[in-house]
Amino acid sequence: MDSSHISRADILVQALPYIQKYAGRTVVIKYGGNAMINEELKDAVMTDLVLLSQVGVQVVLVHGGGPEISEMLGKIGKESKFVNGLRYTDEETVDIVQMVLAGKVNKDLVQLLESHGGRALGISGLDGRMLKAKKYEKADVGFVGELTDVDVTVIRDAVAAGYIPVVATIAGGEGNEVYNINADTAAARLAAELGADKFILMTDIAGLLRDKDDESTLIPQVQVSEVPRLKKSGIISGGMIPKIDCCVEAVRRGVRQTNIIDGRTPHAILMEMLTNEGYGTMFI
User: Fold this and answer.
1) Nearest CA-CA partner of 183 in 30, 6, 57
2) Helix (H/G/I), strand (E/B), else coil: 244
3) Phi and psi dihedrals of 120, rounded to 5?
4) Exposed e or buried b for every residue in 240-275, given b needs 16+ CB within 10 A?
5) Is 117 in a helix, a strand, or coil?
6) For labelling, which of 143, 185, 243, 269 has a CA lying 20 to 30 Å from the CA of 201?
7) Nearest of 147, 276, 281 to residue 227 by alpha carbon
8) Is beta strand 82-83 parallel, antiparallel or unpaired with respect to 86-87?
9) CB-based contact 69:87 (threshold 8 Å)
10) CB 168 within 8 A of CB 125
11) pLDDT 10s per residue in the chain (284 long)?
């Protein structure tokens, strides 16, 4: 018998207990980075999500759209401005953010999932008052918000009807303002409110590394209680700090495990969820 057939069968057998484990469970995936730009990677992500949905996993996709927002601002001659890593969002910019995230990016992802055989429903934090926010207070960044309340009824209804919810992270304020919300933060909070078994944060790095220049030093598993020590030692630093803080927050709010995975690798989601080895760094 062809050895490649045996290998494929072994992969399927290995995946079976994980399919059984996650069937009927909620998994929230924050989609961003290179996997959202590169067409081959984008195709692999959509395939992964549809496959998981087909075997009974309740998939929720939360997306950003920074490059698309910057591109649109450039088209109207407006320069992108950042303060402490947050996009400065004035009144004109927040209109662009709403249009790009809840419009083009969200609906493009819905169409992609549908073209791969899935059933998807695009929603934003404004739908059903899902995400409520107040003005971010630590710096003057305009219409950037901090979440004050999360209502996941719309997402639960979409999942119950057999759809993959695709969520754009804009939120409403008390005075009907629209706020731009950091997608990592929103995804982690949604995972907690949904009682998700797993929260996956896709990035452009292999995971948490002991040596930032050596992917062989990947740390596969971290207890959230270890995070302060890893920050103090410098292993967690720079742009990894807010991402790992999101993972820690999700675990502390009840998500069983969170993962930072490398979205530059095709089918990274399936490798993390349906193999013995897993992928990236898991926080428990």
Assistant:
1) 30
2) helix
3) -125, 150
4) beebbbbbbbbbeeebebbbbbbbbebebbbbbbbe
5) coil
6) 143
7) 281
8) antiparallel
9) yes
10) yes
11) 455 555 667 777 888 888 999 999 999 999 987 788 888 999 999 999 999 999 999 999 999 888 888 888 889 888 888 887 778 888 888 999 999 999 999 999 999 999 999 999 999 999 999 999 999 888 888 899 999 999 999 999 999 999 999 999 999 999 999 999 999 999 999 999 999 999 999 988 888 998 887 888 889 999 999 999 999 999 998 888 889 999 999 999 999 999 999 999 999 999 999 987 788 999 98
3-state secondary structure of 271: helix
> In the block, which residue shows the tokens 């107040």?
134
Quickly tell me which residue has 């949904």 as its tokens.
194
The whole-angstrom separation of Cα 229 and Cα 227 is 5
Residue 281 and residue 221 in contact, taking contact as beta carbons nearer than 8 Å: yes
Rounded distance, CA 42 to CA 112, Å? Answer: 9
* DSSP helix/strand/coil, 148: strand
Tokens of residue 136, six digits: 């971010």
Task: Report the alpha-carbon distance of residue 108 to residue 198 in Å, rounded.
Answer: 25
Structure token digits, residue 90 = 């004035």
Angle at 263 between CA 94 and CA 224, to 5 degrees: 85
For residue 252, the number of C-alpha atoms closer than 13 Å in the C-beta half-sphere is: 9
Q: How many residues does the chain have?
A: 284
Whole-model pTM: value is 0.92
Is the Cβ–Cβ distance between 245 and 185 less than 8 Å?
Answer: no
**Helices 106-115 and 39-54, interaxial angle, to 10°?**
60
Instruction: Give the three-state DSSP class for 11.
Output: helix
Of residues 182, 235, 178, 196, the one with CA closest to residue 212: 235
Residue whose entry in the numeric block shows the structure tokens 């999101």:
246
